[in-house]
């Protein structure tokens, strides 16, 4: 049972929030028949590997009082949608380079009655140079988008000075953090703590990497679309 997992992780959840998470599962599985949104369709596995994994962060960091959050490369809405359901007061911007995924999430968010949430279609390499988005976010979250060096280049331009980049990783977290040292420094960041945990009900190792944005990102970064991936800093 999903509620057991939540209590194992010591995450309090209201019946209203739980119901919204369940409804999101239903909507996503229905759409998954015509669009590739997730390979995980079993209810229990979905709840563990998508929902709980998206929310495990709340044990280490609270979004209460955080004004603006971006979820970069949200795909089927993770971790953005579960976090939005959990923190209704915070404004969320979900970004992806595939428009049809975003249009589905937008429709689902409307059906769930979520507000203070917006959807931006584009590539991080371009959007991060747009004044509308550059250095405008308090926190940026991202899961399963790229290796940490590449992801740091894609992400830090969106974050305000004094803000935070929170990267969801698996077992390779520690190694990726070491390899990303140069990218973090170049982009105006500073490595922070790394938290390791196991998802309940299986041996899935996870890590959460905290990177502080301490200085402004130089104007030349991120580089052109595709370059951060091909030639990581
Ligand atoms: N965060 C989701 C999806 C991961 S798949 C999850 O954890 O389940 C990676 C997603 O990132 C894809 O939907 C892809 O379209 C998007 N993506 C990859 N590179 C991107 C870029 N440069 N800019 C914006 N979105 C990107």
Task: Write a brief structural summary.
With 233 residues, the protein is of the alpha/beta class. It has helices at 2-8, 15-31, 43-55, 80-86, 99-111, 124-127, 148-155, 173-179, 181-186, 227-230, and strands spanning 68-72, 91-96, 117-121, 137-143, 159-169, 189-199, 204-213.
User: What is the helical fraction, as a range of percent?
Assistant: 25-40%
Which stretches of 5+ consecutive residues score pLDDT under 50? none
CATH fold-level name: Rossmann fold
CATH superfamily: Vaccinia Virus protein VP39
Gross geometry: globular
Task: Look at the structure and give the CATH class.
Answer: Alpha Beta
Q: SSE string, helix = H, strand = E?
A: HHHEHEHEHEHEHHEEH
Whole-number mean pLDDT: 95
The helix count comes to 10
Strand order in space, largest sheet:
3-2-1-4-5-7-6
Q: Output the structural class.
A: alpha/beta
Rg over CA atoms, rounded to whole Å, is: 17 Å
Q: Count the beta strands.
A: 7
């Amino acid at each position: 049972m999903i509620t057991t997992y939540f209590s194992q992780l010591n995450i309090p959840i209201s019946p209203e929030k739980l119901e919204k998470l369940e409804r999101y599962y239903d909507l996503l599985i229905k759409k998954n028949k015509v669009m590739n949104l997730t390979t995980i369709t079993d209810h229990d596995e979905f709840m563990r590997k998508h929902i709980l994994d998206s929310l495990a962060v709340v044990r280490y960091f609270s979004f209460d009082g955080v004004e603006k959050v971006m979820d970069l490369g949200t795909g089927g809405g993770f971790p953005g949608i579960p976090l939005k359901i959990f923190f209704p007061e915070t404004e969320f911007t979900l970004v992806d380079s595939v428009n049809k995924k975003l249009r589905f999430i937008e429709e689902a968010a409307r059906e769930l009655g979520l507000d203070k949430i917006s959807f931006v279609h584009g590539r991080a390499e371009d959007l991060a140079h747009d004044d509308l988005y550059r250095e405008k976010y308090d926190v940026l979250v991202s899961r399963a988008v790229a290796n940490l060096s590449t992801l740091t280049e894609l992400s830090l331009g969106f974050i305000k000075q004094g803000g935070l980049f929170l990267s969801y990783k698996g077992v390779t977290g520690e190694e990726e953090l070491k390899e990303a040292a140069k990218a973090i420094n170049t982009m105006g960041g500073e490595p922070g703590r790394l938290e390791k945990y196991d998802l309940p009900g299986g041996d899935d190792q996870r890590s959460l990497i905290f990177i502080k944005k301490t200085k402004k990102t130089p104007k030349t970064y991120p580089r052109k679309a595709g370059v951060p991936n091909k030639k990581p800093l």
